[in-house]
Each structure stands twice: as C-alpha cells, then as structure tokens.
Specification:
heterodimer; A: about 375 residues; Gyrase A, domain 2; 2 domains; six-stranded mixed β-sheet; six-stranded antiparallel beta barrel; 8 helices; 19 strands; B: about 130 residues; alpha+beta; six-stranded antiparallel β-sheet; three-stranded antiparallel β-sheet; 4 helices; globular
Chain lengths: ~375, ~130
C-alpha cells in the first residue's frame, strides 16, 4: 500500500521534519527543534499540528439522523446546541470502543472527527447504521490544530473574531475567500483551536500562522502533551475491549442517556451500577525510569494487578508519567504499586489525572 | 580525540593508561532525539565486550548501551543520570557514561577510528 501524504507534506519537508509512518500516512514525528523543545513551545507559546490524517465525516440532517446516531454514540445529541462539540465514542456491542471522536452539530450537518487508524472501519459502521445516506468523508479538507497560550492572539491575526469562540464550540469563518470551520478545542491540555479548511489553502494558512509567531510541532510532542493532560490515545489507552466506564471516561456519557438504549448500553449501565474490575488511572514512578506500554503492574505482595497503556517522560512536569489499567481495588490515589521495567520492580504511585493542569478557556463573552 | 575509538553500536572510548572512558557518539544522540533517562552499570561490576552496560531512553523509545571492551567499572558519571539532557548537549565530552579498567587492551583493535566510524555512521543512517 502506498503511504499517503497530507496537503502539508511539503511544508513539513521544508521545515526539516523527520517523518514516520502513522496510520498509513507519512507524518512528521518532530522537526529540527526536537520533541522536548516542541513540547515546551506549545505549553509556553503556540504550536501548529497537522492532524489532516484524521477523518472528517459530514452527515447531512434528515428526520431520523439524530436518533440513529444516538444508537451508536452515548451522547445526548438532541440537546446539543448548533456549533457545539462533544467528545464521544463509537460504541461496540460489548461496551468497548470502536473509536473516540468529536462530534459537532453544524447548521445543516453533523461533523465527526475520527482517528486516522480507525476512520475506514468507522465509516463502514456508520454507513451500515444510516443505510448509506448523506455521508461524506471529505478528503479535500485538511485539519490544522493550533495550541498553546499565545494561539488565540496568533490565530486572531490571521482570522478575525475567533476569540469569541467558547471551549468546545465552533463557527464558520473565511480565509482567502474560502469557507473554513474553526472549533475551540484540541488535545494538548492547552487553550487552542482546530481548523478545518480546503487542502488548497492549507499550506498558506499554516505559513501565515508561522509568520505570526507559531511553530510547527510533530507527533512526538503531541504524544507527550496529551499524556501530560491525561488524555487517551486510541489503540493504546482505549480500544474495543475497554469500556468508557473502565477508561474513567464516564463523564463523556450524557447523564440522560445512561438509562437509554444505545449499542453497549446494557454493559455500561451494569458497570455504572455494580462497578468495574479494572480502571484507567494515572501512574507516577518514583524515579525517572519510563514505564512504556505493556509494562506489568504489581502490588506490594507481588501480585500482578494491571498493565501500563502509555508511558513517557513529561517535560512540563519534569518526571516520568504513565497511564494504565489497574484492578479496581488498587485504583485509589496514592496507592503504592510496582512497575516491572527491564526485570526490576520500580516503585510508583497511583495518581490523579491530569499530570499537567489544563488551562482551557471557557470563552470571553465580553470580547 | 584522535585516539578515540568507536564501536558499531555507536559508543566511543578513550584510553588513559589502563582506564578507558566510554560514552555514546553525537551521531547516536542525533538518532535518539531528546534523552530523558539514563541508567549506568554499578561501580565495581564487571562488564563484557559488546554486553549491555546501561540504558538510555528518549521520549520515544529505550535503547541499550553496550560496552565496546571488557573490564571493571571504576567510575560512573552520576551527573548524566541526574540530568540526562547533558547527553544531548555534550555527548563526546562531559557526558561520558562510565570508566573501565580494561581487561584486555587488544580488544581496542577491533574498534573503528574516527574516519572509519564517520563513514560507517553515514552509511548506516537512513
């Protein structure tokens, strides 16, 4: 299979990107600055992320579209306001997750942002559910995220009036006479925006952002940023065999839908009522040792009680950090655990997420 | 550093009497990216040529550090354990890893000189 390229590929190349294959796409893992510097630039100033490999699915409204979507997503779409976004899951019968996604209720259609590795499978599932109607996986669009404290000012210099957007809300704007759609969202734990725009203006848009003071950031720093923010990476921290309840993402299931019917709802309801046997938690090793994915977790009596699903070094917290699933009886904050790294048991503690405090902006109503 | 020898695993060694100082090459650090963790052998332990003698981790992955020659570890550089970013900053100078009392000096003959290593590094990097 040919490795795909995003519309920003040449720009990455011009900025000395080191490429890696990710979900069938050649994506920048880092640029010449390196992961730690790119991470810090995003936390302290502003970073640009090419996330065009993700799926942008548009579904035109008709009479029963909301009901049908509510059968596969545990989110209250009926009370979603126009231009509002929600984090949700494409649910599996066993209560597991086919994909995690962001759904936005636009004026005349839903927009769903899907993970690159899952998007084709997701499309099949959604197509089957909706009997093929009015579905458009738009490959003529790019997706650019700009994240970090200075991003608002920088983006405002390129597209006027974006500052009015509230967190998890979007709106149509224009760039060089092209319609673009911007939401105030992201996956770094920072204030930021995600811009859906035509491929043909993607490079010039990113170049404008660079000119106004932002910097291209690779997937390497995206991973350390999202892990510090306690956010899940699909295929690692959540998958077809983890439920939103086990993943500690119960908050993303709308309260008025818990007793409703959706795929996997029986299992979810049971788990909420009776509890779960394993739970996703934050893990902080006591040393700088990094506990990578699949590292085994033990209790003080040397019983295996879980596995790490993501682990790295968090530059902003200057410590080794990890997430993983652990037996519910050991999931309380500050529980002492041990991680088996290269044959040695490294002491660690269960901790609250996120590792790095979020600074999302709720919106400036008076601007 | 004309007396410096290099291994195919991207370690360097300089000799001062019976004691060799070992670290990883600048080329290795460029391949690894930002190093955020380092583990060194214990002082007093014996290591065998081409055996594992430590670990470095970047934000992306872990890599073993091998010793290019056999010997007894007589000193370790604790400062790179405390601040692994020093390895990226000065890999072929202040950020040495450990010092060995060599068991068999002739093992040095199996290693590359600077010119040979530079060529090797260039050919093997993708």
């Amino acid at each position: 299979m040919n490795v795909k390229k995003t519309a920003l590929y040449q720009l990455h190349k011009n900025h000395n990107a080191r490429f890696v294959e990710f979900a069938g796409y050649s994506m920048p893992i880092q640029y010449s600055e390196g992961i730690v510097k790119e991470h810090n630039i995003t936390r302290n100033k502003s970073g640009i992320f090419d996330v065009s490999h993700m799926g942008q699915l548009f579904i035109k409204y008709n009479d029963d579209i909301t009901d049908k979507l509510q059968e596969i997503l545990p989110t209250d779409l009926k009370n979603l306001k126009i231009n509002q976004s929600k984090y949700s899951f494409l649910m599996k019968e066993n209560g597991g997750i086919y994909d995690d996604l962001i759904i936005t209720k636009m004026k005349d259609q839903y927009m769903i942002i899907l993970n690159a590795a899952c998007k084709q499978n997701d499309l099949q599932i959604i197509k089957n559910k909706l009997n093929n109607q009015n579905l458009d996986m738009n490959n003529d669009l790019s997706l650019i995220a700009i994240q970090g404290p200075e991003s608002k000012t920088i983006l405002e210099n390129v597209v006027s009036n974006i500052s009015k957007l509230k967190f998890m809300n979007g709106e149509k704007f224009s760039f060089k006479n092209n319609e673009i759609y911007i939401t105030r969202s992201g996956y770094t734990g920072e204030d930021g925006f995600e811009i859906s725009l035509p491929n043909k203006v993607a490079i010039s848009f990113a170049e404008e952002l660079i000119l106004k003071g932002s910097t291209l950031i690779g997937l390497g720093a995206r991973d350390t940023l999202r892990l510090e923010a306690g956010l899940c990476l699909y295929g690692h921290d959540i998958n077809e065999n983890t439920s939103p309840v086990e993943a500690n993402l119960k908050w993303a299931i709308s309260k008025n839908r818990i007793n409703d019917n959706f795929i996997g709802s029986k299992k979810i309801k049971k788990q909420i009522e009776e509890g779960v046997s394993k739970l996703r938690v934050g893990i902080k090793p006591e040393t700088r040792v990094i506990a990578r994915e699949s590292t085994k977790i033990f209790d003080e009596k040397d019983n295996e009680i879980g596995k790490v699903t993501s682990g790295t070094f968090g530059p902003s917290v200057n410590a080794s950090i990890a997430m993983g699933y652990i037996s519910n009886s050991h999931s309380k904050t500050d529980t002492k655990i041990f991680l088996e790294v290269r044959g040695k048991k490294v002491p660690a503690n269960v901790c609250d997420l996120p590792f790095y405090k979020k600074s999302y902006v709720k919106g400036e109503a008076n601007v | 550093m004309s007396d410096t020898k290099f291994s195919k695993e991207h370690e360097w060694i300089t000799l001062d009497g019976e004691v060799g100082t070992i670290g990883i090459t600048k080329h290795a650090t460029e391949m690894l990216g930002d190093i955020v963790f380092a583990e060194l052998p214990e002082k007093g332990s014996n290591v065998e040529k081409d055996g594992t003698a430590g670990v470095v981790e970047s934000t992306k992955a872990a890599s073993d550090v091998y010793t290019p020659v056999s010997g007894e570890v007589v000193e370790i550089n604790q400062s790179i354990v405390d601040d692994p970013s020093k390895i990226n900053a000065d890999p072929e100078g202040g950020a040495w890893f450990f010092k060995l009392k060599l068991k068999n000096k002739s093992e040095l003959d199996t290693l590359m000189n600077k010119e040979e290593y530079d060529k090797f590094a260039k050919e093997t990097s993708t």
